[in-house]
Write a structure and sequence with these properties.
The complex is a heterotetramer, with two copies of chain A and two copies of chain B. The longest helix of chain A is centred in the last third of the chain and has 31 residues. Chain A is globular, with a radius of gyration of 22 Å. In chain A, strand 6 and strand 7 form a beta hairpin. Chain A has three domains: about 80 residues, Butyryl-Coa Dehydrogenase, subunit A, domain 1, CATH 1.10.540; about 110 residues, Beta Barrel (Butyryl-CoA Dehydrogenase, subunit A, domain 2); about 140 residues, Butyryl-CoA Dehydrogenase, subunit A, domain 3, CATH 1.20.140. The two termini of chain A are about 40 Å apart. Helices cover about 45% and strands about 15% of the residues of chain A. Chain B has three domains: about 90 residues, Acyl-CoA dehydrogenase/oxidase, N-terminal domain (Butyryl-Coa Dehydrogenase, subunit A, domain 1, Orthogonal Bundle), CATH 1.10.540.10; about 90 residues, Butyryl-CoA Dehydrogenase, subunit A, domain 2, CATH 2.40.110.10; about 150 residues, Butyryl-CoA Dehydrogenase, subunit A, domain 3 (Up-down Bundle), CATH 1.20.140. Chain B starts with 6 loop residues before the first helix and ends with a helix. Classes of the chains: A alpha+beta, B alpha+beta. Chains C and D meet through helix 9, strand 8 and helix 11 of C and strand 7, helix 9 and helix 10 of D.
């Protein structure tokens, strides 16, 4: 057991830190509101500097390093308060799935522009009638000559309004049991018949979207795996979404804790310093401890991953715990403003930062696996309890 | 011992609920909240007609109205006028309020000073002219008159004599404003100890009112959650069969009933000027504010993604719940006062 | 709406208060450890003074008053820190069931000695294999001439080691669906074949018991309702257990909050006053508020009961909320002692009061309907959600 | 970056778990806890044989032992001797400990004074004789030697020179005692700033050890809960299918993993004398103590009535969890110190 960086890791960290100091733009206060073109440019600079696809094979534009380096990147980027690469869906979901299931041609075609931020990806998994129940999806694809013809509707798709490509789960065989009839397509978001409708969140920002497919023609070969493999391929996607998520989340939480510390040490609009209130002190310490516990839980999962190639089960609770911590933390922050927390626009305290993130945090226990589903998964897959459904 | 509203009060509740449901269905509420001012300009004369502004209404009668305007938010300065301002008004202004000709609010918080209702104010009056800066004034851009706390008492100032800066607000139908007074003509309403006592009664009343509204908010959130849990299916069953959902709904129900009991106790104490009024109002405000937030958060979670959208009405209630919970400081501030009664 | 006592209620309260001041013995610190004979004598004195069976019909030794007077009794007894009547199972479960289902003879025979504390009752509902699932019980009763012959085992029976009578749910017909085959007997605990084995709790005290029935002969007429009515009769018992419970619980909580206030205002063994700690102040205020919320929730349910004859649904959460409040409150109290909380015997702080009640409180969410079952009940019966089982 | 125990350490864990499970099955544990002294008098030489007392053990090696003695409580003053006392001992005493010939503990708390490990002591030494009253001494009636905090440093006093009053304890295998010294011969171990620094290191170490034990306790409680949830049927199904049970088990699992991560971090910091040791140990103790209590309470609830009986082993773990959570003050005390690092 040794938490210190190896000399190589330390060098990587030092180089990265100074690169970030010189290059990272200021992070927009509110996620959905940033300038997307500027973000895309930032993604390109990150890629050019070698900080995107750190763990991906070199032949596809990656750097072939161990996940430890990715963890270091996430920590440092968060400490520098740098914005995220805009291609999160591509990096965390589409990319790893293509690496696992794609043909050589597909890898050549899609991976590099994904890393550089030139092409943005989105995902089409959920449907209005089937939230957490992926296998109940009804969006269909029917083979017509050399093309799949896709019809249906997807929802909760972030970045769809900016995306060039979509990883799409469709039903290609309605006559077999529901898991067996799914396939996994790569769909051009600029194709005729694709319509994106932004869904505004409770923050007011359009972060997720609905996607409508109306006789969209998709080349027959734009499929990952074989027809009928859709469920298995999607599980790879979700595994990777969750597998690489932990460090990103604890890094996010570290950033929020740091902001919280800044906030409570400031003098408030009523002349008091929240940090002088023992109840607030107790709550801040609790979240710092929570953040460290998630950080080191990630390290444990990472160690297992390095040793066995499979992430440790310790990590499965990180998203669950993070989402609730982030909700507590942002609510605490809002509470120090009193009614002032309600004022929006230019008179909003902290330029609306806490307002936005407090509201945004209510989605944390819903998106990327609801807390209810995650608790089921831990109970069934980690603890071996009998299935409740 | 009798813990029920009278038959007349229950009738009033029925009318009120119907009126509000009719006038402020979820679509209309959203439209008003997102409008320029957040105020339904035409509703005020109707309130007067229905007797909501009558001086004879007891606070228990009003409790019914307040709970219902939590259940269906009313886009008008009703809380500000009748709860925050009315108790301080002189007869003439009170009569105008009762006739539906005057709306009002209370302006107390000042920048750089403790902002509780009972904290000292720095605003000063000299030669009948008031000068000072007030912030976080509820419905500040929607009323005709300000009741203003000053260092030596309470004063009435016409809105037309003040510089009002309206703010955007998370809760679109109850926004805040900053108000600057630059030697504005001011009519004294109360001074010295009488003013302090009056302000204390206003705060008790406001806490009870906030608790009652919070109960209405929580009830609506629970109703939405239960309806959705019966209808929405996942994995082939209505989600209400899963204990992760049904037990959360049960917890909301229990908290809501607790909050309601405290809110009614507080309302009765205010109506009867009971010696326990202060503690009852602190308890009700602290508990019900948190209960409403909890109910809304549980309902959003129970709805999944759809409950997180701007289109769904839930976030309107959530923001109102947050407004209420934040009013005059978070629950921990009220608990600190309760503790002082118990422990010092 | 009026929370003040009527003149009659005020007179009753004043008389009771002064009577308690003169007559109430000191309450033993730890429930299961008191002197039972002294408790029984106390029950007799209470009865003679007219404070037992306050709401019961006068013809059976009650006083025929409205439930408001029972609520006043519970409040005042708790404020005076008076011990409970030892016949709680009789008063809250057996008695109301006999009043509802008993024959005239049964009422004459059983009710008066139950009120006076001369005869103690216990209940036999749960079995080792069926905790919350009453209808899965297997203790059997077979008719043999003029007697039922009972065989089986019951568990979680408080007072069984002191009891003269037991209300016992038995299976009299194994061939019909499980709810339909139950009957409800009154069993003499002194009959041959009845064996009681005390179960020690985590507090170390024997409060509950196992009861073994080995060919116990019960007169044929010692039944409430008809053979096969057992489920319905048992539901009456449980309704009454829960119906009358609310005030007892909020009164208990008031007593505990008062003790907590005393505790934190005292100087601790380290010279500090817990009441000077803002975190403790916040927690104490929280429990005081919780207690008031339950108290007034009971009043609301009581008003509904007075108006309609059926307790209001508001009351169904009181036991649930009380149990968790009592757990938080007693844990908070123990926390102010630090490691000293661990010392038992004569050196225990507060003579072991908080130690006992903190451990005892863990049973609160299990006994008389587990919290899980109560949440099911609220969801299904009050909110109308579909049954999960 | 490597967050795993070495192969040797994992082997040590295997041996340890086997040894403890063998020697302290639930029945034996109960018998010992309810015995006169709560101590397994014969186990000490075996610990020495197995190398548990070796001076060469790193704190990471010991971390393995401590976690396992939480999973299966060891009825011997191992924590007191090796965690609380050993770091202060002089070479001679340390050698005796390593040989299994000496047990020891630390006596710090005094009546009427702040009782934290780092609070000043009033006990005084003059002419090599120590006089004072100590309370809440862990394993105070089961050891040969006391390390005693005095106003000017740390001293060693033989148990035979002290008046020891053993107390009954909720946790039967780790009881407390009061110890009076009336001019007892005392050997100085450290004085002045060196003593203060030493005591600080002892406290860090003790917090890490407490956290590690708490992790073991929580793991056992979770294992018992999961096993019972698979086997116990209600309404025709194993209770583990109900989310009220399975989600609670999931929550325990998550909290346990968090606690484990913090405990290992703290242990590593102590072993390496890392600059973050103080914060890591505070965090680990606060979190893991509460996590163990939560795990035990959840397991008791999941077991229903049977988990609430004296016969069932769960309450032994619950009382140990409470012991650990209470050690040197509840979690809020440790959080207050963490807050001081962050905010002051």
């Amino acid at each position: 057991m040794d938490f210190r960086d190896t000399p190589e890791e330390a060098a990587f960290r030092a180089e990265l830190r100074s690169w970030l100091q010189e290059n990272a733009p200021e992070r927009a206060v509110e996620a959905g509101r940033g300038d997307f073109d500027a973000l895309r440019a930032w993604g390109g600079r990150l890629y050019d500097a070698g900080y995107v696809g750190i763990t991906w094979p070199e032949e596809y534009g990656g750097r072939g390093l161990s996940p430890t380096y990715q963890a270091i990147y996430l920590e440092e980027a968060s400490r520098a308060d740098a914005p995220n690469h805009p291609g999160v869906i591509g990096l965390n979901m589409a990319g790893p799935t293509i690496i696992a299931w794609g043909t050589g041609e597909q890898k050549q075609r899609y991976l590099k522009p994904l890393l550089s931020g030139e092409e943005i990806w989105c995902q089409g998994f959920s449907e209005p009638g089937s939230g957490s129940d992926l296998a109940a999806g009804r969006t269909s694809a029917v083979l017509d000559g050399d093309h799949w013809v896709v019809n249906g509707q997807k929802v909760w798709s972030s970045y769809a309004h900016k995306a060039d490509w979509c990883i799409l789960v469709v039903r290609t065989d309605p006559d077999v049991p529901k898991h067996a009839g799914l396939s996994y397509l790569i769909v051009d978001m600029h194709a005729p018949g694709v319509t994106v409708r932004p869904l505004h969140q409770i923050t007011g920002d359009p972060e997720f979207n609905e996607i409508f497919f109306d006789d969209v023609r998709v080349p027959r070969e734009s499929i990952l795996g074989q027809p009928g493999d859709g469920w298995k391929v999607a599980m790879t996607t979700l595994l990777h979404e969750r597998g690489t998520l932990g460090f990103a989340l604890s890094a996010e939480l570290e950033r929020m804790v740091n902001h919280l510390v800044d906030l409570v040490r400031e003098e408030g609009p009523d002349g008091r310093r929240p940090a002088d209130d023992p109840l607030i002190r107790d709550a801040v310490a609790r979240e710092w401890i929570e953040m460290q516990s998630l950080r080191f839980t990630n390290y444990r999962a990472l160690t297992t991953l390095l040793e066995t190639g499979i992430p440790g089960p310790e990590g499965s609770g990180v998203k669950l715990a993070w989402s609730e911590a982030n909700q507590r933390l942002t609510s605490l922050a809002q509470s120090v403003f009193g009614l002032h927390a309600q004022v929006t626009g230019e008179d909003a305290p902290w330029n609306g930062f806490w307002q936005y993130w407090q509201l945004r945090s209510r989605g944390n226990t819903i998106e990327a696996g609801t807390s209810e589903i995650l608790r089921n998964i831990i109970a069934e897959r980690v603890l071996g309890l009998p299935k409740g459904r | 011992m009798d813990f029920a509203f009278s038959e007349e009060q229950e009738q009033l509740r029925g009318f009120t609920r119907e009126f509000l449901a009719d006038r402020y269905d979820d679509v209309r509420l959203a439209r008003l909240a997102d409008s320029e001012t957040g105020v339904d300009a035409e509703v005020w004369p109707k309130l007067a007609e229905m007797g909501w502004l009558d001086a004879e209404l007891t606070f228990l009668d009003q409790a019914v109205l307040l709970e219902e305007t939590g259940y269906r938010p009313l886009a008008a300065p009703y809380f500000s006028t009748t709860v925050l301002a009315a108790p301080a008004l002189d007869d003439e202004a009170a009569k105008q309020v009762a006739d539906g000709r005057l709306t009002a609010t209370l302006a107390w918080a000042e920048p750089g000073m403790r902002q509780g209702l009972l904290h000292p104010a720095g605003t000063s009056v000299s030669d009948g002219r008031l000068t000072g800066q007030k912030v976080l004034v509820p419905d500040g851009a929607a009323v005709d008159l300000f009741v203003v706390t000053a260092a030596d008492g309470l004063y009435a100032v016409n809105a037309s004599d003040a510089v009002v800066t309206p703010h955007g607000g998370l809760d679109g139908t109850r926004r805040l404003a900053s108000v600057r007074f630059e030697g504005a003509p001011a009519r004294p309403l109360a001074t010295g100890e009488a003013a302090a006592a009056l302000l204390g009664r206003i705060r008790d009343r406001a806490y009870a009112a906030v608790a009652l509204e919070a109960v209405g908010v929580a009830q609506r959130a629970l109703d939405l959650l239960v309806a959705y849990a019966k209808e929405r299916k996942q994995f082939g069953k209505p989600i209400g069969v899963y204990q992760a959902v049904s037990h959360k709904a049960s917890d909301v129900y229990v908290r809501l009933q607790e909050a309601r009991s405290l809110a009614y106790w507080a309302a009765w104490c205010v109506a009867e000027d009971d010696p326990m009024a202060r503690q009852a109002c602190l308890a009700a405000k602290a508990h019900a504010g948190e209960a409403a937030v909890f109910a809304c958060e549980s309902a959003i979670q129970g709805h999944g993604g759809i409950g997180f959208t701007w289109e769904h009405v839930l976030h309107r209630y959530y923001k109102r719940a947050q407004w209420l919970a934040a009013f005059d400081g978070p629950a921990r501030d009220q608990r600190a006062e309760v503790a002082a009664f118990l422990l010092d």
